[in-house]
Amino acid sequence: MLTGKHAVITGSTSGIGLAIARELASSGANVVINGFGDAAAIEKERVNLELEFDIKAYYINADLMQAGATRAFINDSVQALGGLDILVNNAGIQHTDLIEDFPIERWDAIIALNLSAVFHGTAAALPYMKKQGWGRIINIASAHGLVGSVNKSAYVAAKHGVVGLTKVTALENAGNGVTCNAICPGFVRTPLVEKQIVALSQKLSISVEDAAKELLSEKQPSLQFVTPKQLGGAAVFLASEAADQMSGTTLSLDGGWTAR
Ligand code: NAD
Q: What is the CATH number of the domain that holds 170?
């Protein structure tokens, strides 16, 4: 379905980004993966993508907290792939604290990666997409792009910002073949959430598995984690022809979190 398309997925050495890269690749797209981690493990993932799905996969290392590095990363990706059709702005980090205790450098880092990198990546990608009259920008926001939670000021502010940026990107490109939408996941059991589960288990002196259930019961009525693969499926849908007229909106996969 996406055969021959060129996709860039930020923060895709782990968790949701890696699963999105795998689903796009399984639909035939060539991919650039990016993010931190063990070099040998990343190379193994890259080779697996090529062998399993018969596509081209590249790894480009870039610290997307820097504006210049983010813009250069998009241009380097276009050089490697030979084009750019799909950009998934996924890289993100988390920190939890009350506002008055929130370390300034953590606030700055979360805004830089979770919000500003989406802006810089989008700005660098749009000229290529507009020129060819087709493009898909998929922003991985969060249920926290739609509602708030205590202790997550920077994250909630950044993700609400991403939802706003998604709308502006959609409006500025309406009718030119480039769409922009945000996926809003609830809890997904990736390293980002595992940290919160472990912290909760320590705080409540309960097992990690009980803490996982506790975390879900606070927010996610289904009491089940969203899987990275399900989010990959949503990204494939947004990249498909069925989503041609879908732009500037949010797609929630949150087990009912934002329904109440
Ligand atoms: P993760 O920690 O498993 O993966 C994050 C990825 O980003 C990794 O590949 C990491 O190497 C990369 N990364 C971190 N800092 C980077 C930097 N400075 N430059 C480039 N890459 C960097 O996290 P995840 O849970 O897969 O989160 C992915 C996205 O999904 C994030 O935007 C997150 O906010 C969002 N999200 C996650 C959940 C969840 O429950 N896990 C829910 C809603 C939204």
A: 3.40.50.720
